[in-house]
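User: Quick sanity check before I run a bigger batch. Here is a single chain. Can you write out its predicted 3D structure?
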Amino acid sequence: MNPEALASIIERTAHDLAASGEASQLADDMIPAKVTVMRPKDRSHGDWATNIAMQLGKKAAMKPRDLAQLFADRLAAADGIASVEVAGPGFINITLDSASAAAIVDQVLAEGAQFGRNTHLAGRTLNLEFVSANPTGPIHIGGTRWAAVGDSMARVLEANGAKVVREYYFNDHGTQIDRFAKSLVAAAHKEPTPEDGYKGAYIDEIAQRVIDEAKAEGVDVLALPRVTGEDGAEGDSQQREEFRRRAVPMMFAEIQQSMKDFRVNFDVWFHENSLYNNGSVDRAIELLRGKGDIYEKDGATWFASTKYGDDKDRVIIKSDGNYAYFAADIAYYYDKRHRDTDPADIAIYMLGADHHGYIGRMMAMCAAFGDKPGVNMQILIGQLVNVVKDGKPVRMSKRAGNVVTIDDLVEAIGVDASRYSLARTSYDQSVDIDLDLLASHSNDNPVYYVQYAHARSKNVDRNAAAAGITRDGADMSLLSTEADGEVLAQLALYPSMLEQAGDERTPHRVAHYLEELAGRYHKWYAAERVVPMELTDAEARGDAKDVEALRIAKDPEPARAAARLALNDAVQQVIANGLDLLGVSAPDAM
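Assistant: Done. Predicted structure follows.
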């Protein structure tokens, strides 16, 4: 029996008490739609506990302990429940019988990769935009974190039944692209990097690739006209435009390959420039103008965002006629919500730590379009990543010059450790990535600890097969030891954990769950046996009681061995399911 099934029994009991009149003034409309069932910290208090009587006591005009006792009397008679006790101010502690507790094993093995998946977000399309780094350089460590967190979040949401559109927004319009092109031209001419330009070996690489590509087509890009102003700054020229035209797609391709190598596959690669080219920006502005939210002042065009809670109105077309960056944001959100294909019910933006000031204007724009801020638009702000090696911060990339990139991290510790370590901490907290720890094969390395549990369970399967042990004839009621119970209870928590991770946009819960399951499994492995072991002479010389205890552990009866093998395989399945949600492999051996 899992917590969800037990919660249903408790809910039905509450309605029965209301109908019978035993619970004084308790009525159906007082009973919560979702009953809370929790795991007691003290194992001696039972397998599960609920505070339902404390929630309803005042409403029912009863002392919580008296109401709890009414629940306890009825629950004790339910199938699968061994005992029920009332504790403290009105907690109800419930102990399941062994067979009922172990039924989760049969459920896991029957459902396999589908175990824990549900449909409670079915019918909703969520547009999840993440990474979205400018195409002016390799993905840095902050973007790498969003790649790990964003893709894991998408997988979790899909496991909860949602339709998820993974989207990457290329900022290929505006000043950052101009700076990129100027940097490339300077590098091609062996000149110093412009003051506001981009530095790093990759700039030299891209510049040379542009030269080589153009040369292969019979174009000498360095011979194209290059206009230089009196102040020495480069002006618009054929040469710079040629570098821009050729280099930006090169950067796109490199970013796309990095994402693919990191096991992140986007459904939509959206180009900011398209919003201007197809008139989306102008149409979105006119829509807001029609709502009375656009006005002219000081030669500029403004969005009246203070009408919707922003701290100040925002310029969308500057006095020089150029669009402010926010103009594209307006058009982009409207596009997400009104596309012909997969229009978003919810648009989720995953933004870096330096974007906190964007929230007010973005939510105001959401409200101006008639949507609900925080519902139709959700903004998640990530925090910084610190990379450490030999106890010291790592700040320099071999290629990018001043940042650690996705390729640097993968080269150092691999995709599995990179994804897991970046996704296991809540995105709104800073995280330290210790390269030495994550490259080690130790229990202090969280990804190794979880993957090793899966590999160990596979080894148990191999040993069981060699000994002729199968799951046939398993008596699940024999999974009655404390170690058995700890693993069973953790398995039973997987579905509710997955639902919570989806609703709260917290994929790190999956990693925390896996680490807890791995820990309980490793302890179980040390305490229990699937494959028989011979008793040593020293063990056989003990008294009869001790020898019998050892025989249960070291030479289990066939039905117990089969049950333990089933439990082993259920753990294996759930770890594989959880690692898949994080985009991490589940190895058969380590």
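Residues 230-234, 547-552 have pLDDT under 50 and may be disordered.

User: Great, the batch can go ahead then.
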